[in-house]
Design goal:
Length: 129
């Protein structure tokens, strides 16, 4: 993938490779957690890099006693780094792609929430009063 790629225009994915990647990520998340998942989003910064984390969980109650299924997508936002959209492998439960722009990260999150018909929650680790 080219280093200077722009993935979105703030509303739609405009890069073909990114569209293919997003289709595969949607399928992987649906396989992991089913339809209408809970989606928890939270931003954080670590070692000088910004991240937008999205955790997806099954929306139905788990009455079987088994560990609930989940999937984690953590987008690293590295303005001077290389854009890397890793293709999810069968059965994977987490991905950490690297993109160059926070607008792309937020647009990808919005598209995922819409396509998956997710119930979205925003988690903030430290809430200021």
């Amino acid at each position: 993938m080219k280093d200077d790629i722009i993935l979105t225009n703030g509303e739609f994915i405009i890069d073909h490779e990114a569209k293919v990647w997003l289709d595969q990520v949607c399928g992987t998340i649906k396989d992991a957690v089913g339809d209408h998942p809970k989606m928890r989003m939270y931003p954080y910064r670590k070692d000088g890099c910004d991240y937008l984390a999205m955790d997806f969980d099954e929306s139905v109650g788990n009455v079987t006693g088994r560990k609930p299924n989940g999937f984690s997508l953590t987008i690293a936002i590295a303005p001077y780094g290389k854009c890397e959209l890793e293709i999810p492998k069968v059965g994977c439960q987490e991905l950490v792609p690297t993109i160059r722009d926070s607008l792309d990260a937020i647009t990808i999150a919005g598209i995922l929430a819409t396509r998956l018909n997710a119930t979205v929650f925003f988690n903030l680790w430290a809430v200021e009063s």
